[in-house]
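Hi team,

As requested, here is the filled-out complex form for the iron/sulfur cluster run. I kept the field names the same as last time so the parser does not choke. Let me know if anything looks off before we queue the next batch.

— J.
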Amino acid sequence: MNLQGHLLYIDITQICGIGCAFCMYSDKHKSGMSMELSTLARENLSALINAADVKRISISGEGEPLNNAKVFHEILRLSEGGKCFEFITSGFLPHDKMVDFYETTNRIVLRNGDTCNIRLSADSNHIEKVKWRAHGLSLDYLRTRRPAGLSFSFRSIDTDRDFTRDYLVSELARWGIHAIIEHHNALEDVLIADVEHFNIDYKNLVYPAPGTPAGYLNLYDYIKAIEGKVNKRFTFGSLNPSPLANGMDLTVKPNGDVYLYGIESQRLGNIHFNHVRWEHLASYVRETPLVRALYTQPLTDLLARFDNMEPVQSILAKANNPYWLVKELANHDGLLEQLVPA
Ligand code: SF4
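And here is what came back:
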């Protein structure tokens, strides 16, 4: 199995005071923890970040990562150059603080020869909760200061795509920026302001509450939409467009625990206590039957084994995201293991 083009997610905090209605991590926000970097954690993250096969390092959280910006900047400093970072945020800070954050981030990535894309949440859940909205500010900052190391994009979980589109166009107009939106596919739009293009990516709503308006995709349509983007069947791992091989998707949690993304029933170590390297993880993927099956066999083929089987069908009906589906299957004794062909 050829594994190339890995994605490293680092969740740097569980703290968040914003309170989005749909949030899957709200139980952790008050008493949760933020990542700190021990000597071994620095050594591990440095090795993971600087490996040649890493395509992106995505910093996020089970909370709002701006609440641990210090550690984000420490992580950026571990890079030896040529890396693409991404920071996923609500952008909730007062505007002067947000600009300070951008300036510091830009300075570090430029010094190291890296880039960082700031992905701002732009859906109705976040927008109604966030007082200092960063969408107009960020594109204004981009056109006036021209930070060479930073780029911006938007993300949304709105089932009503027009809400996000209309909000962004009108918010940018308030900052004197004329923007139009081009529809790309089921999961992506592009916002065009002057001649610059900014991606808007749409995440599917997981566990929609009863009465949620139509517009979200069921599991199979969501998988089909992802397959259309990469032009290959959906498997676990970091999907790279055909004909490229796929990579590994690794998540580091705020306490340092390490998992393959979406397979959280199997903890692979902790960056504060173990040596964590891509080579060991690749051996684990190749040698562990469940993981190997999830990484090599299309998920819809594996799920065909569960046709008409309860409680799988009830779980499938609600968890309309493949990663949440597998997390949910892992909560039922022995169910996940039944995915593995005999
Ligand atoms: S900002 Fe993010 S972490 Fe905070 S409540 Fe909203 S979705 Fe959850």
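Two things worth flagging: Residues 16, 18-20, 23, 25, 63-64, 90, 126 surround iron/sulfur cluster (CB under 6 Å). The chain is about 35% helix and 20% strand.

Thanks,
J.
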